[in-house]
Amino acid sequence: MNTSHKIAVLGLGYVGLPLAVEFAKKYFVVGFDINEKRIKELKSGVDHTLEVENENLQSVLTTNVNDDKGLFISSDLNDIKNCNIYIITVPTPTDELKRPVFTPLIKASESVAKVLKKDDIVIYESTVYPGVTEDICVPILEKDSGLQFNKDFFAGYSPERINPGDKKHTVTKILKVTSGSTPEIAKVVDDLYKSVITAGTHCAPSIKVAEAAKVIENSQRDINIAFVNELSKIFRLLDIDTKAVLEAAGTKWNFIKFSPGLVGGHCIGVDPYYLAQKAIESGYNPEIILAGRKMNDSMGAYVAQETVKMMIQKGATIKGSNVLVLGITFKENCPDIRNSRVIDIIREFETFSINVDVYDPWASKEEVQHEYGFELLDDHSQLRSDYNAIIVAVSHNEFLELDINALKSEIGVVFDVKSLFPKESVDARL
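^ that's the sequence the OP posted. Answer follows.
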């Protein structure tokens, strides 16, 4: 292990913080972020994302830049200038037209370029399409630093595989793909990650291969979920329970198990658009990838529309009716609201002039207001007892404690998107 490595991790979110904490157990690490609120929170030893336990975070924090190991939290570029490994873990979202947004990646590259020195290595973890590291990021590093790529400085790519809210498959327990801009640097990068990743590493033959591997991981999952989402629409028309069908089919040894639902989050609902963009730029129209995205992006509106149909059948007046949506985070038992497709259900209800209450004990009221522009209910005491419809959009454990039938009106309906409750206690599920 080369303990002379001094590592800077840029971006202390769901990906960067867990990685920085693990590296800090063996190396000196500067955790850098431009969000002053986040910096203050982490310096106090608290992680609101819940990806790192506070005790674990506090055990590696240091305020001494001369320590051999530990995590120094900062928003000052001067604090990373003495590092020789720069790991960039910033978000790579899409815009309203589903086009890749590289602004965070470009800004982070510009920041690193200001402090880049001879023999430094810049490693990217953000999900991108093949070629972004060398075709977009490296030219920025060269231009703003005045240094020459693969002569004065080097690059690597090791795609993140963080699964928010998953306490079993944590960063050290997930095999890591690594790569470098030269064979020698690839080994340095691989050895670096191997020193903290107990699950092991896989060194890809090039940066582009590593980039492609990451983006197809989530694209493959997206397509598989799109298939079962389409099945759920078909089986609903045939009055067949999709979950029962999948359980029966799942008894075959080579049947791949996926469940229908809303496909959000920062990875699966975004990454396929990156690959599709690159394919289109290269002259190929990616039919299956985009078809899968179209299907999955349609599910929120579909749930709302099917619910309205059931409400009409029960004799409810749609305009002005009251609906409860349980959950706004993109997945269960996790506070992450990024790219939550629950918002599609809510927006579709609003087109019918329906009043929507949203309750989520995991989500931050402030973040939801900022991101989506509405107020969450404070707690379960604000729930009504006469909802015309209830949507179980996220399967938080806390929802199992609710008596959903006591929350609805006599003609109210329950659409259980996640099949959280027994079939006989709800009116519909995907």
